[in-house]
Batch of 2 targets.
Target 1
Amino acid sequence: MLAIIGGTGLNQLGNLKITHRQVMRTPYGEPSGPMTFGTINEHEVMFIARHGYGHTIPPHMVNYRANLWALRDQGAKRVIAVASVGGIRADLVPGTLVVPDQLIDYTHGRSFTIFDGRENSVTHIDFTLPYTESLRCRILEAAKSAGEACLNGGVYAVTQGPRLETAAEVDRLERDGADMVGMTGMPEAALARELGLEYAAITVVVNYAAGRGASVKAIPLDEIGTFAQPAMARVRKILEGVVERDGI
Ligand code: HPA
């Protein structure tokens, strides 16, 4: 089954016909909220709001391990994560949708692995390509069929938050090769790989990163919703297409 992790601006899926909700406990504690099960155009799908349904959990406090573990426990095989980001690359203007193909992890102090000594042996996952290519392609195909522009590839820098970056930090991220910056891409992607789940993301550029474009002096936080809302409606449309293509 396909699972969707909704980020800021996507606390629920409007086109999801809810069948039931399930409160979960995991070896890693509680997920961000109950798993929501339902159908989109008759196709089964599972949904969880990363920041909680009332948007109360900041990026560094999300129980990523519990979220991913619970999704797999409930039968998820594929996970599409939706996340808001700031655009660093000049063409990543607010409103742009991207399916990233790489990430750089700048987070710290998060519970980032399930291989923490409870397992019998030391386990290293391959993470050369952090996103599942076939799932990335499926998203891009769905976007194309829906007539929604969605860029193929980009490097997602994952910062600790919850504060936004300084302009100099964004300069550094750019020198490192990052195209966009957000706060939730890790450890989510790595945990999905550890748990054997296919995982890809749709990032939604909701602002120019600090020091760029309209954010030269400050990030206009009150304008983020203006870009996020219509962009999330486009994301929902794309997700509908992905769900229809999902083999279950
Ligand atoms: N930086 C970090 N995370 C973000 C941003 C940003 O500019 N915009 C949305 N999430």
Note: The helical segments are 64-73, 133-146, 167-176, 188-194, 224-245.
Target 2
Amino acid sequence: LGGGVETQSITEFYGEFGTGKSQICQQLCVTVQLPYEHGGLDGGALYVDTENTFRPERIMQIAPRFNLDPEDVLKKIIFAEAYTSNHQVVLLENADEVIKDGDIRLIVVDSVTSHFRSEYIGRELLAPRQQELNRHLHKLIRMSRAFNTAVVVTNQVMAQPDAFFAKVVQPVGGHVMGHTSHTRVFLRKGRDNLRIAKLVVSPFLPEGETPLRITERGVEGEEDI
Ligand code: ATP
Ligand code: MG
């Protein structure tokens, strides 16, 4: 990503189940706490979880790899579970104080679309769904600018309806997601239990791919594999 996740913008990781989206998000909650000279932002993280997949145990596993104390790292992550899309929206609309007080430099919404997708079903609800999602994403952009934070969201994929032969998937959220995520990374499963991360959209980098491996230590890149 040319130096990491950008602040004051939205970075989206999308892909099928088990491709490592939540693993990356949890690891970023650790690495954001690193000092500037080690690539961090010396700040805390706010994790909004819609699928109950955040695990403190996982954070404790990952922290030592970055020479951070697991207990200290955990204390600087503010966790909130969102039960509905409306709850998710309200949580973030009321997060300003928490972000200031917690010295938050990373906001994670994992996943940003799942509630919207499961609640607004059918063609007649597509327009209101997209409108609400759009409002929510713009709120996230405003927050990232106001507080100089990185915003990382995850998103699922669905089969492309008009693809007959090849297995073609596209991210949920259509043009609304596409226009608000400044950086988009597509994750897929590769051979030998590897994951492939493809940079699909970036404001300043060309398309590119890199292998990742999910291990006890977290998500490891090419240099560790
Ligand atoms: P979903 O769409 O269901 O939310 P996801 O993309 O968020 O999926 P993750 O939960 O990030 O998927 O990744 C799950 C993968 O991470 C599994 O393949 C699992 O084996 C692997 N994984 C989780 N914890 C560990 C660990 N401690 N050591 C090795 N691999 C792990
Ligand atoms: Mg997940």
Note: The chain has a mean pLDDT of 95.
